[in-house]
C-alpha cells in the first residue's frame, strides 16, 4: 500500500471516542492500582488500600468482556479516590518530591479514569441492549 488511505482511516477520532476507548481499556485501572499500592503499602494504611483490589477486579472483568460495566465501576472508584485524596492537604515543597510526583500522577490518572469510565459506561453497549 503506497500512500492511499480509505476515508475511514483518514478520519480522526473525536475527543469523546478517545475518552470512551480510554474507559474501555483494562490497563489504566491496573496502573492506578499499582500507583495507589506504591503510596500506601509502606507504611500500610488500610483505607486507601481498599482501592487496589477493586481496580484490579475491574481490569479482570474488562478482560472477561464486561467493558461497559467495568468502565463504570472503575470510573466511580477513581472518582471516589480522587475525592478522598484531594481532601488531604500537602505542603508546597513536598509536592516536588518523589511521593508528591507519584501522588500527582495518581490523581491525574484518577481524573482521566473517571471521565473515560463515565463516558464508556454511558455510551457502552451491553448484551441485553442487543435483544
In short:
The protein is built from 7 helices and no strands. It has 131 residues and is mainly alpha-helical.
Question: Which helices and strands, and how do they pair?
Answer:
Elements: H1 7-10, H2 15-23, H3 27-40, H4 51-63, H5 67-87, H6 98-123, H7 127-130
Helix pairs in contact: 2-6, 3-4, 3-6, 4-5, 5-6
What does this 3D model show about the protein?
The protein is an all-alpha fold. It has one domain. It has 7 helices and no strands. It has helices at 7-10, 15-23, 27-40, 51-63, 67-87, 98-123, 127-130. α2 (15-23) packs across α6 and α3 (27-40) runs antiparallel to α4. This is Altered inheritance of mitochondria protein 19.
Number of domains: 1
Q: Fraction of residues in helices?
A: 55-70%
Structural class: mainly alpha
Helix and strand element order: HHHHHHH
Protein name: Altered inheritance of mitochondria protein 19
Keywords: Membrane, Transmembrane, Transmembrane helix
Organism: Aspergillus avenaceus
Amino acid at each position: 500500500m503506497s500512500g492511499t488511505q480509505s476515508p475511514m482511516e483518514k478520519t480522526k477520532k473525536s475527543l469523546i471516542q478517545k475518552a470512551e476507548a480510554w474507559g474501555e481499556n483494562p490497563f489504566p485501572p491496573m496502573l492506578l492500582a499499582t500507583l495507589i499500592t506504591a503510596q500506601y503499602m509502606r507504611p500500610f494504611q488500610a483505607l486507601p488500600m481498599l482501592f487496589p483490589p477493586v481496580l484490579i477486579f475491574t481490569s479482570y472483568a474488562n478482560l472477561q468482556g464486561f467493558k461497559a460495566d467495568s468502565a463504570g465501576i472503575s470510573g466511580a472508584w477513581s472518582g471516589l479516590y480522587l475525592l478522598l485524596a484531594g481532601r488531604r492537604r500537602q505542603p508546597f515543597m513536598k509536592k516536588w518530591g518523589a511521593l508528591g510526583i507519584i501522588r500527582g500522577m495518581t490523581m491525574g490518572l484518577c481524573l482521566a479514569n473517571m471521565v473515560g469510565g463515565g463516558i464508556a459506561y454511558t455510551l457502552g453497549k451491553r448484551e441485553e441492549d442487543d435483544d
